Structure formats: C-alpha cells, structure tokens
C-alpha cells in the first residue's frame, strides 16, 4: 500500500544525495567547498562564495537598484507543450484520493519538476510570450499554489519524485547567463513546501546557493517578482529561510546535516536570498509584512560582538557577518551591540583621561572618569545646557547627575529623573525650539530663524546621551525625524556635505501636519483647472514673529503658476521645503549634536524605526507582563499584600500605571526588551503601615509596607506615585 498524508515524514535522501569537498578530475581547483551530486553525473557547476562589501553598500544594494537594468538577454529555448489546467490537476488529485491510483498525479509531478524547461512549460501563463519585464513574472501563481498545496498530501514516492527532479534541475550544466525562464524556475522552486523539512535541507541549500550567486540584474528581477506573492505565502517563505538559518546554527540533531566546515556557505547563501525578500518587501507601500518579521531571534544567542568585530575589521574581505544584513538582527540584539560598543568607548575615553593625568604627574580623581553634571532644579535647562557645552570633551564618559541641595547618589535614578524633567521643559511650546502639533501629537522643529543654533546641537547631544547611557526618553518626534537622523548614519568627513537631508514624501507630512497634507492631497486629485481655480504659484508663505515672509520653491517660483501638469512637482517641492530646507540649520545642529555622542558604525545597523525605539522605548504598557516577570524580596507572590497590589495596579488607568512606572523606575517608557528587561522588584518594607511606599529608581525597586487591606494599599500607593519628585538618602 502507498502511504500518504502530511503527517508522514519525508525519509532522508542520503541514499542518493552526497556532499563532497574534493577536486573533480579534469576540472582543476575550485573555490566551492561542497557539491550536490547524483551517481553518474559529472561536471557539476561550482558557484563562488557569497560575500558583500557592506561598509560601502551599508544596506543590501538591491534596495537602490534602478527600475530596469540593461543586461544581456539570452534567447529563451522553446518550451514543451503542456495543456493541463488547474481544474484538470484538481480532478486528477480527487480521482487518486478516491481510487488509490496515484499514477496520473505521479506522472505530472515527476515530469513537471524534472527540469527548468518543464517547470516553465507547466506554470508559465503563456509559453509563447517572453515576459521579460520586472512587473510581470509570467507565472501562473494560482496553478503553482494549487500544485504545492496538494503536494504534501501525496504518497511518499510522489514527493520523492519532485525532489529528484529538483536535483536534476540544480545539477544542470549552465552555459552563459541565466534566461528569464531560469529565473522563473528559481522563483517557483523557492516556494516548494517540502523545504520546511530538515531532511531536504541539503537540496534546499544548493537551490539557495545558486540563487544567491545570480547576477545583480537577475536579483533585481527576482525581488520585483517576489513582491507579487500573497502576504501569507510571502511570510511562509521568509519563515522557512529563518528556520533554515536557525537550525543550521543550532541543529536539534547535528547528525542530520553535514559538518559545518563542509557547508559554511549554507548560512551566507540563505541570508542573501532572504535579503532579496527584504528588498521585495521594501518595494511595496505599505510593506507586505512588518520589518520585524525578518528578525531572527536565534541570533540573540550568538556572539554578537564577534559578528560586529568581523564586520568592522573584515568589511572588504570575503568574511561573512550577519551585520552585513542588519534586517535579520532583532532590535534587542542591536541594542546589545550598541550598549557594548558604548561601554567600550566609555572605558577607552576614561582610560585615556587617566593616562593623561598620570603623564602630567597629577593625582588621579575618580570624577575624571565620568561626565559629571550638576544642576539646580530651579534653573534646570540653563544649567544643563551650560554643563554640556563646557564638558563637550567628556560626553562619551559615563553620565552622573547631581541635583544641587539634594543628597541623592546617582546610581542611575537621578540620571533618569534629569532626562525626564529636562525633556519636559525643553519641549514646552513656551521655550520656542519646537512646535507641538495637536493633530499628530508630535513635536517638530521651529522654522524661525535665529543667530545661534547651538541649543539645537545640545538637544541633539542630550538625545545621544540617552541612547549612549541606555535611557529611554518621552520624546514625540515623527518617524521622519529618525530617517533624517540617519542621513547619513556616519558623519561625513567633508564639513560642507549636507546632513539631515532625506527623501520625503506626502506620507511623511501626514505624520506631522495632517491637515496641510490632506489639502495637498486634494490638490493632486482635483479634477478641475488647477491654475484657474487655485491661482497658486511655486511660492510658500510663513509667519515669523508676526511677519509674513515668502519663499520661492524654485528659481522665479513666484512667477510660475501651479497647473494640472506641474502640481506633482509643486507638492514634492512644498514637502521638501517644510521638512528639509526650512529647518536645515536647526536640524543640522541637532544632527551633529546627536552624532557627537553616538558616533558609531553600529548606527549603520539601524532602521529609522529602530532608532525611535532605542530613544523612546515603547509607550505600550503591559502590566500583566510586568507582573509575570516581577521578583520579590521578603514577600511571596501569594501573600495578601502582593495580591492586593496587583489587583489595584491592573485596575489603574493608563495615566496612573505610567505614574507608577515612573515612580519605581524613573521613566514611564518600556525598554526595548519589554517589561521583563526592567528587572522590577518588590521588597518588603519593615516600617509602619502609616508610611508611604518608597522606590529605589536606580535598581527599579519598590519598597512596600505590609498594608492590611486593599483600600489602604490603594490610597497610600496613589499618594506616593502622585508626589514623586526629588531624591534623598535613607
């Protein structure tokens, strides 16, 4: 009898697949470490190793390829005529299920997957058309999906015949560049659900290797074709690649795979193919899946600093590092890299200060190892800006804050308090540096001209200090701000080079000034005569200190009317003026301030969204997650006081929950790793129940007296968290 059904595991193919690492007789030396071979098959084509010069490319280059690339197009060979339709195939499957005779289905699968030509003959929408554009792959996606959906429910010999056919196709001797039919076959083979099974990984690895070794022009086509795949199947392809990388790094059964030394190219090949899907994802607005779906959390458990070191030191060699493909590294892992890189810089700067002191025969002082900031609460902003301006050379040292007249020692809590209060005052509308937009609930740079932009530089340095010292800030900048902050991610050596300028679109303006953006959108879709009805020119008017000033969007813009033909240009120039040109000096100072503290190659790893998370943390509070991760000292989680506490806290409004978080940790934001990263602790306070709760913000610790009932605990807790400014020593 024939076994069938998705539950059956595909047997290992070691009886007809072997991996070798030797020179072929008569071929000469080769760079490729392993080959997939079948008995009696010779002259298998080797592929070069996969590597990228990431330092120069920064991100995978496919993102910035032109829409079309001129490449030699080899002639397509004539395809066999195959007339089976989706319905014909479905009928064959139904008949086989009812009769138990799978010969027709077996013949279809074994013939279709026997070669790249047969794959195209079966799945190409029109075998007589070339389909040579990036916009249409020519693949009958519905037929492909139906065939693959049925595959795992067929008998084992049918599934084996498909894999044998795939091997035959991969072992084909290639002459000259790939045709579009070859690319179509690769695109179809990647979707084979059999590759989710570890027993097929040797075949899957060779498929990935061939795709990774294609030319840049071929990758361009594959990326554009992949963006047409449905969201569910696209996510499955990405997950399959991530699983392949994870299981190769940490195999559950190491004996299933060849030794790592013989297949070191597996992970680079899979990662580069994953980069194609990441590029395809970025070609679509909105993206097919979230950028976080490309994260591989397995990488959180490898030596990240070694990866970072390899990337920094061997960028121009063929040495692989996951840092070459930062989209695969989770934000938690990137935070670890940035923190350790910051710590190494802090140690280096402190050591240099110590050496300088000793070389001048001066007595070393512990204070010289830190950036010491002393401020008065009554003059918080002016004192802080003065301190940072005076101690610019110490910005890369560990930060310690002292409030004049208070006895608190800064073990981290005072620093959090300083950042929170300082940001709150600087971003107040009365201060005039930033404008708050109520519709979008975010701040943006004031476009008012001034003589000195040093305060913007110091605000940038302040934000850099927060990232450098792993402090989250309650700042509400739009996503566009972080995109500008990474433009470029490394400060250029040429001081005349523009910084903080990025490509902006109407969508970026919607996130800051939605009402104005809506008006411009209406202009673009207006069906009447724009010139006669709007009577606008390429000119912008802004009010500055009660005076209306005009600015031309282009030379002689006041004399150029906005028409139906040029309105797109007008809108683009308008958006660019508002988000780039009108605030250039302000943002450039802010940019240089931020990078004066955070200058690091680690910034090359970050997306703008990830910079925002590092700066601001997450505003989403999950008190249930905090309850699960809380540690106790002197209490058990089943004690009445603890049960009362969580019943009260889980019933708090969002505002009171934020106040509690601020009271206990010094910040009302959630760090990158979530609530568990807070290491929140509740300790028993052996004091009278008449006392209020006490917090040690340096250690995220709440000291709670053993209140006798829920009502008393709630009353004392609300009083405590609502009057939580200032520090003292017990």
Automatic annotation (TrEMBL):
It is an enzyme of class 2 (transferase). The gene is Hectd2. The active site is at 698 (glycyl thioester intermediate). Pathway: Protein modification; protein ubiquitination. Pfam families: HECT. It comes from Jacana jacana (Wattled jacana). This is Probable E3 ubiquitin-protein ligase HECTD2. It comes from the Eukaryota. Keywords: Ligase, Phosphoprotein, Transferase, Ubl conjugation pathway. It catalyses: S-ubiquitinyl-[E2 ubiquitin-conjugating enzyme]-L-cysteine + [acceptor protein]-L-lysine = [E2 ubiquitin-conjugating enzyme]-L-cysteine + N(6)-ubiquitinyl-[acceptor protein]-L-lysine. The keyword Methyltransferase does not apply. GO terms for biological process: protein polyubiquitination.
């Amino acid at each position: 009898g024939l076994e069938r059904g998705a539950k059956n595991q595909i047997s290992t193919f070691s009886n007809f697949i072997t991996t070798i690492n030797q020179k072929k007789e008569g071929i000469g030396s080769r760079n490729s470490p392993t080959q997939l071979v079948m008995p009696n098959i010779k002259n298998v084509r080797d592929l070069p190793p996969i590597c990228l010069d990431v330092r120069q490319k920064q991100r995978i280059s496919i993102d910035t390829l032109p829409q079309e690339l001129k490449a030699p197009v080899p002639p397509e060979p004539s395809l066999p005529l195959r007339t089976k339709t989706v319905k014909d195939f479905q009928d064959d499957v139904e008949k086989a299920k009812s009769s138990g005779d799978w010969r027709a289905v077996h013949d279809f699968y074994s013939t279709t997957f026997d070669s790249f030509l047969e794959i195209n003959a079966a799945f190409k929408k029109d075998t007589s058309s070339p389909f040579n554009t990036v916009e249409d792959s020519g693949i009958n996606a519905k037929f492909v999906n139906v065939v693959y959906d049925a595959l795992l429910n067929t008998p084992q010999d049918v599934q084996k015949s498909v894999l044998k056919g795939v091997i035959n196709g991969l072992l084909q001797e290639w002459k000259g560049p790939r045709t579009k039919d070859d690319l179509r076959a690769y695109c179809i083979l990647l979707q084979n659900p059999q590759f989710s099974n570890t027993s097929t990984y040797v075949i899957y690895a060779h498929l990935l290797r061939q795709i990774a070794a294609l030319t840049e022009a071929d990758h361009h086509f594959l990326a554009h074709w992949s963006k047409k795949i449905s969201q569910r199947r696209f996510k499955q392809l990405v997950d399959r690649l991530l699983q392949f990388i994870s299981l190769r790094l940490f195999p559950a059964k190491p004996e299933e795979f060849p030794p790592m030394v013989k297949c070191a190219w597996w992970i680079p090949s899979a990662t580069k193919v994953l980069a194609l899907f990441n590029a395809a994802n970025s070609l679509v607005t909105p993206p097919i899946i979230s950028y976080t779906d490309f994260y591989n959390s397995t990488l959180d458990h490898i030596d990240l600093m070694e990866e970072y070191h390899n990337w920094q030191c061997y960028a121009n060699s063929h040495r692989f590092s996951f840092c070459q493909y930062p989209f695969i590294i989770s934000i938690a892992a990137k935070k670890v890299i940035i923190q350790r890189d910051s710590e190494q810089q802090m140690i280096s700067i402190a050591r240099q200060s110590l050496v300088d002191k000793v070389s001048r025969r001066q007595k070393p002082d512990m204070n010289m190892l830190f950036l010491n900031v002393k401020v008065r609460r009554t003059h918080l902003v002016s004192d802080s800006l003065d301190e940072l301006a005076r101690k610019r050379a110490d910005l890369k040292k560990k930060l310690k804050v002292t409030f004049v007249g208070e006895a608190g020692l800064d073990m981290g809590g005072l620093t959090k308090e300083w950042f929170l209060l300082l940001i709150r005052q600087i971003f107040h509308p009365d201060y005039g540096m930033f404008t708050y937009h109520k519709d979008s609930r975010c701040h943006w740079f004031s476009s008012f001209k001034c003589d000195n932009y040093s305060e913007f530089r110091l605000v940038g340095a302040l934000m850099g200090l927060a990232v450098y010292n792993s402090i989250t800030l309650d700042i509400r900048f739009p996503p566009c701000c972080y995109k500008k902050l990474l433009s470029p991610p490394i400060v250029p050596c040429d001081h005349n080079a523009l910084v903080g300028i990025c490509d902006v679109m109407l969508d970026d303006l919607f996130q800051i000034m939605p009402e104005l953006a809506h008006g411009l959108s209406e202009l673009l879709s207006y069906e009447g005569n724009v010139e006669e009805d709007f009577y606008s020119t390429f000119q912008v008017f802004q009010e500055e200190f009660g005076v209306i000033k005009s600015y031309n969007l282009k030379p002689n813009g006041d004399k150029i009317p906005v028409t139906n033909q040029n309105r797109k240009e007008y809108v683009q120039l308008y958006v660019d003026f508002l988000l780039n040109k009108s605030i250039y000096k302000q943002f450039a100072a802010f940019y240089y301030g931020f990078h004066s503290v955070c200058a690091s190659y680690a910034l090359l790893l970050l997306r703008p969204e990830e910079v925002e998370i590092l700066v601001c943390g997450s505003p989403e509070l999950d008190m249930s997650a905090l309850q699960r991760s809380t540690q106790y000292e002197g209490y058990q989680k089943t004690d009445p006081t603890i049960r009362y506490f969580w019943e009260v806290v889980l019933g708090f409004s969002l505002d009171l929950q934020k106040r509690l978080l601020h009271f206990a940790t010094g910040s009302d934001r959630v760090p990158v790793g979530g609530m568990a990263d807070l290491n929140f602790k509740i300790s028993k306070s052996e004091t009278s129940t008449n006392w209020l709760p006490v917090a040690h913000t340096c250690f995220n610790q709440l000291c709670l007296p053993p209140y006798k009932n829920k009502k008393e605990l709630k009353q004392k807790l609300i009083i405590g968290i609502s009057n939580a400014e200032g520090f003292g020593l017990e």
